[in-house]
């Protein structure tokens, strides 16, 4: 998502505009993602792509990126993807497989993609890769929609649900 994104449309918000508006509302409140230097690169209905630089303070005793930081990047990407329709959604479960180490100064990218969305639940797959396209981790998240909206007060017709 670019810094020059359009302001919140007042009427006729399409799904892409809604996803962009939702991330603009969520990211400023997401102190965890900000403190880890995560950047939202792209968002759309049911998808998100974030990046993060592996800093020296993220390294474990093997001089590789601690798995918790990789998990956090994948989880943040998951959060932006599953909230992209402006319906408050949380994780109900997730798992991760680490397939390769990430090193200092790697730029990791987590790409989240919705696989299913039925009723209040969804399943999302997230791939974390480095700047060379090497897969670092595979994450699967299960979502659950709770009460409320990320951006309160938008008419239901603008959110793609009535």
Automatic annotation (TrEMBL):
Every Thioesterase domain range: 63-136
Source organism, top-level taxon: Bacteria
Record bears the keyword Ligase: no
Record's signal peptide: none
Alphabetical list of Pfam families matching this protein: 4HBT (PF03061)
Swiss-Prot/TrEMBL keywords: Hydrolase
Single GO MF descriptor: acyl-CoA hydrolase activity
Sequence similarity: Belongs to the thioesterase PaaI family.
Name used for this protein in its record: Phenylacetic acid degradation protein PaaD
High-level lineage: Bacteria, Pseudomonadati, Pseudomonadota, Betaproteobacteria, Burkholderiales
């Amino acid at each position: 998502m670019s810094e020059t994104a359009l302001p919140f449309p007042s009427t006729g918000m399409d799904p892409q505009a809604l996803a962009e508006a939702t991330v603009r509302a969520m990211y400023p409140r997401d102190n965890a993602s900000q403190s880890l230097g995560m950047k939202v690169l792209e968002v759309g209905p049911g998808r998100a792509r974030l990046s993060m630089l592996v800093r020296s303070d993220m390294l474990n005793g093997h001089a590789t990126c601690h798995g918790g930081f990789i998990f956090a990047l994948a989880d943040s990407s998951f959060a932006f993807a599953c909230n992209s329709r402006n319906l408050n959604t949380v994780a109900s479960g997730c798992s991760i497989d680490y397939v390769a180490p990430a090193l200092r100064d790697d730029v990791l990218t987590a790409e989240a993609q919705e696989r299913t969305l039925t009723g209040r639940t969804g399943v999302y797959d997230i791939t974390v890769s480095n700047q060379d396209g090497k897969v670092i981790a595979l994450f699967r998240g299960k979502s659950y929609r709770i009460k409320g909206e990320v951006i309160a007060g938008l008419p239901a017709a603008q959110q793609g649900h009535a």
